[in-house]
Amino acid sequence: MSTQPDPTPTTASETGNGGRRRLLGRAAIVALVVGAAFGIYAYIGYLNHGQYVQSTDDAYVKADSITVSSKLSGYVRTVNVKDNQPVKAGDLLVEVDPTDYRLRFSQDTAQVGVAQAGEALNRAGITEAQAGIAQAQAGLTNAQRDLAFETGEVARYRPLVAAGSEPKQTLDQHLSNRDKAAASVAAQQAALAAARAKLEAAQAQLGQSTAQIAAAKAQADAARTDLNTTRLTAPKDGTVASSSVRIGQFVQPGQRLMSIVPVQAIYVEANFKETQIGLMRPGQPATIDIDALPGVEFHGRVESITPGTGATFSLIPPQNATGNFTKIVQRVPVRIRIDAGPEARRVLVPGLSLTVDVDTVGARGAIRQIRSQEKQTQP
Question: Where are the extended beta strands (E) located within 163-244?
């Protein structure tokens, strides 16, 4: 029996190549399994959480800046601040020359004194008129008493003269005295009426003087306010920005002089697409990345959502009722409170660009609730 040699003998190199191929195949299978597992994990994570994280890079640092303007006209006497200087509420910023306003305040204060003097004079006139009324009343009483007496005498002497017991001259004298007494009563009545009219006039003048005092005091208060307004102070804590006022400059009422930026009260305004705000609610957590501080992550909370898109509050709102309408996804401003320390707030100035992520997973049941309510309202 003869033995034939193997036509394809297996070499050591071929054995090594086969082992490597099997090893690479196992590694590929492991990698495929790990990749599939990671993909499934990522997909589950997206379904449970990732799809509820709304992100936008159309976000900026904001602050409610205050424009400092002059209420009065005049020349600037002093400027106590410069750009980028921090100030406290009540700090003196600018002083307008108060000379004219101080003189006006002195004049109006003097007018108050004049009006008060006139009031005192009118009160004295009232006292005098009241004394005149008392005097006229006393004179009328005396005249009425004399008239009554002479009328009685005429009545008593008339029968006596008729009987011849008394001379006719006596009756004539009493008649003359009676007429004089009657005339005196009329005169005293007129004097009493005049005294009362004088009292009414004095009382009216007193009311006018009181009104003049009130008007003079109002003018003095206005002048005092203008005098105090020549000193422009900081309305709140912040930093001076964009100052355009100089010493010796003539300023007009309402003219902008500078701005106060409350850097400690900054916030974030993020403009989300209308397709992103369906589940957005105040109080939801937010993650903030700032371009000026790469690698630093800040946290915050949604404070409020603007009741309208940005286009709604623009100077010229778009008119979509036209034939060339093109649908554009609208943006809704969302205000977010940012939690940052003092060192970071030195860098967070208004206008910086941000990237904001809002976690809306807490409101994921809102869509189902809305659908349920709408179904109940349908007839």
Answer: 231-233, 238-241
Query: pTM for this structure?
Result: 0.63
Let me know how many helices (H) and strands (E) the chain has, helices first.
5, 14
Q: How far is CA 52 from the centre of its chain?
A: 38
Bridge partners for 177 per DSSP? none
Please write the tens of the pLDDT for every residue from 80-131. 999 999 999 999 999 999 999 999 999 999 998 988 888 888 888 888 888 8
> Which amino acid type is present at position 265?
A
Structural domains in the chain, CATH included, are 51-64+264-319+326-377 (2.40.30.170), 66-98+231-260 (2.40.50.100), 99-228 (1.10.287.620)
What is the distance between the alpha carbons of residues 238 and 91, in angstroms, rounded to a whole number? Answer: 11
User: What DSSP element (H or E) covers 338?
Assistant: strand 331-339
- Residue 311's contacts (CB-CB under 8 Å, 6 or more residues apart) are 317, 318, 330
